[in-house]
Amino acid sequence: MTLFEPPADPGPVAPQGPTVRVRLTVAYDGAGFHGFAVNAGVRTVGGTLGEAIGRVLGHRVELTCAGRTDTGVHAQGQVVTFDARAEGLDLDGLARSVNHLCRPAVAVRDPAVVAPDFDARFSANARRYRYLVLNRPDPDPFRAGFAWHVERPLDLWPMALACDPFVGEHDFSAFCRRPKGSGGEPASLVRRVREATWTDDGDGVLRFEIEASSFCHQMVRSVVGTMVAVGAGRMRAGEVATIIRSRDRGAAGDLAPPHGLTLLTVRYDGWSS
Questions:
Q1: What backbone phi and psi angles, to 5 degrees, belong to 113?
Q2: pLDDT tens digit sequence for 19-73
Q3: Tell me, what DSSP letter sits at residue 239?
Q4: pLDDT over 90 for what percent of the chain?
Q5: How many CB atoms lie within 10 A of CB 30?
Q6: Which secondary-structure segment (H or E) carries 220?
Q7: Which residues are catalytic, by number?
């Protein structure tokens, strides 16, 4: 179910006449959505956003996103691109109207016309995610939707040490849900991580940020779950490198819940969301 009723005539499949490539930065509260990717019969961020954009423009659009976030995952700096009819295009008006239709769960900003070959996914150089852990005995209702509440005390020092083995280029099979590659061949799960850090933000909030060229399915949540196991004393920081080399999904920790995860920023040549 979308946030509004789609028009009786959704318009042509593609815009008629000359088109331009449009880029939008998108923020959303992932609760209540079955991920970003359009999926018939369920409410998704991409489905809701695409319908709203199509309603405003008068023609359907095909969205490309920088990262297909999972069910319950949030975004602050998701990026989408699509082609729009050039004639009469009002970017600021488009953003205002889309925000009116999608509020409060989805919001767009920074509308821009970009080069025809700019692609939200394939033009990206890096993605940065944040995961929040509320580590204290008492819950916080104002953070409940955006942080994983872990009551057991966590030792941040070994968690910080556990970050080091992730940096660099590795096969992350131990931390990813394996997809099928083309022709039935297993897809590569090799990724290059540029940075991984834990920070104590005070008041029991622990913040993990990780940046990589790209991520595989459930990678960040698996990494966080493993590091929380380290902080709780169920694993040692020195075991992380061995887990990476094992390429064994069963060797890593449990998945952290999705609601603590936010896609923060996507980086491109000369611009970031």
A1: -85, 130
A2: 999 999 999 999 999 999 998 889 999 999 999 999 999 999 999 999 999 999 9
A3: G
A4: 88
A5: 25
A6: helix 219-231
A7: 70
pLDDT at 9: 46
Q: How far, in Å, CA of 91 to CA of 265, rounded?
A: 22
| Cβ-contact 251, 176 below 8 angstroms | no
Which uninterrupted H or E stretch holds 231?
Answer: helix 219-231
The CATH fold of domain 19-114 = Alpha-Beta Plaits (3.30.70)
Residue spans per domain, the chain = 19-114, 126-268
126-268 maps to which CATH number?
3.30.70.660
**Is residue 15 predicted with pLDDT exceeding 80?**
no
If residue 224 lies in a helix (H) or strand (E), which one and from where to where? helix 219-231
Helix (H, G, I), strand (E, B) or coil at 170: strand
Task: Report, as an integer, the average pLDDT of 173-184.
Answer: 75
What is the distance between the alpha carbons of residues 185 and 163, in angstroms, rounded to a whole number? 31
Entry pTM:
0.92
Of 74-83, 176-185, 237-246, the least confident: 176-185
Distance separating alpha carbons of residues 271 and 258, to the nearest angstrom: 28
Task: Enter the DSSP assignment of 115.
Answer: -
For 131, the token pair is: 């995961």
Q: Which position has the token pair 């609601």? A: 259
How far, in Å, are 34, 51, 216, 257 from residue 46 at the CA level?
Answer: 10, 8, 19, 21
Asked if 23 contacts 82 with a C-beta cutoff of 8 angstroms, the reply is no
pLDDT of 264 over the 60 cut: yes
Dig out the tokens for 139 from the structure.
Answer: 């819950």
Banded pLDDT at 209 (limits 50, 70, 90): very high
pLDDT at 212 over 50: yes
